[in-house]
């Protein structure tokens, strides 16, 4: 819980710091224009990559394969578009990193390795059978 609260506090502080620094270097009007430009270009490119991901997922479904990467990639693209819409340079940088396929694939591989290790640890289980007990049996 503390990590979430810390993130909620730190992100605006970093963004405000970057606004001040970049605004001091290039001017306020150019800073605001750059924010709108990154949002527009980012959302457009997220839409383009989203259609590519959808097309790839449909192709895998036609071949009767489960499009796991495409599902995760689509969610990452939606989150990246949200980050790009939020005004700020740090969120834009993270959003652009999530949009580009090579960095998205690196992130996917990192998380898939992490969760596949956890899955292997949980493979110790006991199989069994169960049957429902009828509560309406005649009990005297």
Please give the structural blueprint.
Blueprint: H1 2-26, H2 28-62, H3 68-85, H4 89-99, H5 101-121
Helix pairs in contact: 1-2, 2-3, 2-4, 3-4
Mean pLDDT: 84
Strand tally: 0
The assigned structural class equals: mainly alpha
Q: What portion of the residues fall into strands of 2 or more residues?
A: under 5%
* Cα shape: elongated
Distance between the termini: 54 Å
> Helical proportion?
over 70%
Plain-language structure description:
The chain has 5 helices and no strands. The model has no long low-confidence stretch (mean pLDDT 84). The chain has helices at 2-26, 28-62, 68-85, 89-99, 101-121. With 140 residues, the protein is mainly alpha-helical. The chain has a domain at 39-114.
List keywords for this structure.
elongated, 79% helix, 140 residues, mainly alpha, 0% strand
Q: What is this entry, summarized?
A:
The protein is mainly alpha-helical.
